[in-house]
Amino acid sequence: MSTAAAPVPTSRWEPVIGLEIHVQLKTRTKMFCGCELSFGDPPNVHTCPVCLGLPGALPVLNARAVEFGIMIGLALGSEIARRSLFHRKNYFYPDSPKGYQISQYDVPLCSGGRLGDVRIHRVHLEEDAAKLIHVGESGRIHGSDRSVVDFNRCGTPLVEIVSEPDLTSPEQAHEWLTLLRTTLRQLGVSDVNMEEGSLRADANVSVRPVGSTELGTKTELKNMNSFRFLERGVRAEIERQTGRLDAGEPVVQETLHFDPGSGRLTSLRSKEEAHDYRYFPEPDLVPLVVSDELLAAAEAALPELPAARAERFEHALGLGVDRARELAFRRELGDYFEQALAAADGSRDAATAIANWIPQLVERIGSDAD
Length: 370
Ligand code: ADP
Ligand code: ZN
Ligand code: MG
Known about the structure:
This protein has 370 residues and is of the alpha+beta class. Helices cover 29% and strands 24% of the residues. Helix 3 links the parallel strand 13 (219-224) and strand 14.
């Protein structure tokens, strides 16, 4: 008869989360050609030899996209590289007619920075792929499912924002994304609409023993299409990982899909199946040089940002930190608050009194859809 003690209750695990966010820029034309951006137009009407990847077509960089990228970097406190490079990221997929994506690799436009409590790793420019539409059961041809491609999206300017792994809970990830979205909206650089795909987020998740400073093995949750689903997906993944570790099984590095309907996580690919993108410098583009004028113009175009506004509400007007954020992270609420305050006497007492009305106001306006 075994007298072995029951397994020691496991130490507590602490989640670590890092986010990668793709933002479609609200320029008039695409990243490397003159085709107009559109959402909801008939398929394949905004195309040309460049964005269709026809042989011999040459890319021309969109200056406005660069300016927007710099504005985002400045808003996030990044260092703006005065000279950065474009690379080819090679992969074969029907949504990428060139067989590669033009992106930035080892010398991105923006490095470092911070938004709220989270450090920014980098911000770089790239182009979006076309849109694959998978036709469901009714669209079966000869027994196989059908996929069609809409090239209107192909070549849309994108900025990818990569955070450091500084988030420690699903709720915090949700709140931080809300701050990021508000910041980008305030900058006027993107529609930041998750439903329309102008904002897309991937979450990297790991857990480690509380108090440890080493990072655990991470998994990646791809393409969550709402902040609420992302929060739920991350929560489910933290539970799955702690469950495995508690059972003495390792976490395997892989890419996962979270189905909000069933709440299930399924593997898309493992580390072994990871792509080898064979990056090399884009030979058809010269290095991107940011002039003093361009930097100055981007700086001049920066509005007051939500994080700064929240601090002003807190310190200059004496609001509590939560109320200050609630108002500042939603522009229309903050604007309403400031107009009401100006109509009163502008004092700290008035600020507190008016701010206390805000919950009723939020109820009447409804909560921000995400
Ligand atoms: P990869 O080489 O797999 O792309 P990176 O180091 O470039 O990984 O990081 C990609 C994203 O994953 C970043 O947002 C980063 O903060 C996050 N990340 C990296 N390591 C971890 C980890 N152990 N746990 C959680 N997130 C992580
Ligand atoms: Zn084009
Ligand atoms: Mg990486």
